[in-house]
Amino acid sequence: MTTKIRCQWCLSSDRMVDYHDTYWGVPLHDDRELFAKLILDINQAGLSWSTILNKQENFYKAFDDFEIRKVAAYDELKEQELLQNSGIIRNKLKVKAAINNAQRVLEVQKEFGSFDAYIWSFTKGIVQQHHIEDGEVTPATNELSDRMSKDMKKRGFKFTGSTVIYAFLQAVGVINDHVKTCFRYAELSGK
User: Fold this and answer.
1) Deepest of 14, 56, 64, 120, by most Cβ within 10 A of its Cβ?
2) PANTHER family given for it (predicted)?
């Protein structure tokens, strides 16, 4: 039986391997799921991805499955409820950012027709194929994440620095950062 070669970062647990094999880097076009990934990546700031992945179901439950309109309408009472929820990251600024960013997504949907159209407009719908060799350090930011971060901040999004946005772009498949020897690199790049 042949062992599949994967990106090294995912080998710490079965859950990480499943995330890598199934979701990470797959082009995503659903507004609700794009919003969910943005909020999860914002919550990862300062933490490991495995911490967020282990709490992912709790996040979906706590944030009403990331229904954008619901989250945008959260009031002070709901905010306090979230801050008491030990199943998620109880950071006041990140909770406030989720509510604020849901409101910003609604504005973007009005302007662009969808959050998806906005996100993918930065690359004209084309996946950025990076060609990372084994052992090569994956960048934490690039020109695309810098540009998108700047635009999102201008629109009032919170916690959307270039590093967070780069991780988001990797997760939703705008950037293919699987290493070249990883079986997912070939599947997602068509090579």
Assistant:
1) 120
2) DNA-3-METHYLADENINE GLYCOSYLASE 1, DNA-3-METHYLADENINE GLYCOSYLASE I
Q: Model's pTM, two decimal places?
A: 0.96
Confirm whether residue 20 is marked as ligand binding: yes
Q: Is 7 annotated as a binding residue?
A: yes
With 90 as the cut, is the pLDDT of residue 11 above it?
yes
The pLDDT value given to residue 78: 98
DSSP state of 64: G
| 130 in a known ligand binding site | no
**pLDDT one-digit tens code per residue, 134-181:** 878 889 999 999 999 999 999 999 999 999 999 999 999 999 999 999
Which residues lie across from 179 on neighbouring strands? 132
> Residue 109 is which amino acid?
Q
CA dihedral 78, 81, 85, 89 (to 10 degrees): 50
Is 178 assigned to a binding site? yes
Q: If pLDDT is split at 50, 70 and 90, which confidence band does 66 have?
A: very high
CB 33 within 8 A of CB 105: no
What residues does each domain of the chain span?
14-189
